[in-house]
Amino acid sequence: MSGLTHFDGEGRAVMVDVGGKDITQRRAVAEARVVMQPETLALIRSGGAKKGDVLGVARLAGIMGAKRTADLIPLCHPLALDKVTLDLTPEGDASIRIEATVACTGRTGVEMEALTAASVAALTVYDMCKAVDRSMRIEGLRLLEKEGGRSGRWSAA
């Protein structure tokens, strides 16, 4: 598997040396969905959840998650992030779409930070609403786009 870069010549896991890479603007966008009962989404929309503002807390949790990615995912580089935004949008009557955008100026990309932000936000929605809807599920976590670095721009089809 020549495409994997987190291994040294002896097959041991290592953190990739990015010291020789150019410093460029990096940006990544990821998404996830939390699917729930219509009553649960109605409760979130009304602000009636017992634990408070579900979307506001999930947004903050996603931002905090992005900032802690290197602590959560082995071999990720700790990055000084320039920007993290999360949009949590109710869709239809039974789901919330989460879109996380992360940017930095650095030597390595922010794909993992965007994916972590979307994941943590989705898990926070679940945690805050699980008492009323244990059937919720998190779906579709994926990278939507990235730009910067040697590989340039990439977008999901």
UniProtKB/TrEMBL annotation:
Q: Per the similarity annotation, which family is this?
A: Belongs to the MoaC family.
Q: Which UniProt keywords apply?
A: Lyase, Molybdenum cofactor biosynthesis
Subunit record text = Homohexamer; trimer of dimers.
Reaction catalysed by this enzyme? (8S)-3',8-cyclo-7,8-dihydroguanosine 5'-triphosphate = cyclic pyranopterin phosphate + diphosphate
Annotated Molybdopterin cofactor biosynthesis C (MoaC) domain residues: 15-149
The record ties this protein, via NCBIfam families, to: moaC (TIGR00581), PRK09364.1 (NF006870)
Q: Which residues bind substrate?
A: 75-77, 112-113
Q: Organism's domain of life?
A: Bacteria
In which organism is this protein found?
A: Sabulicella glaciei
Which Enzyme Commission number(s) are listed?
4.6.1.17
Q: What exactly does this protein do?
A: Catalyzes the conversion of (8S)-3',8-cyclo-7,8-dihydroguanosine 5'-triphosphate to cyclic pyranopterin monophosphate (cPMP).
Q: Which Gene3D superfamilies match?
A: Molybdopterin cofactor biosynthesis C (MoaC) domain
Q: Does the keyword Transmembrane helix apply?
A: no
- Give the main EC class: lyase
Official protein name in the record: Cyclic pyranopterin monophosphate synthase
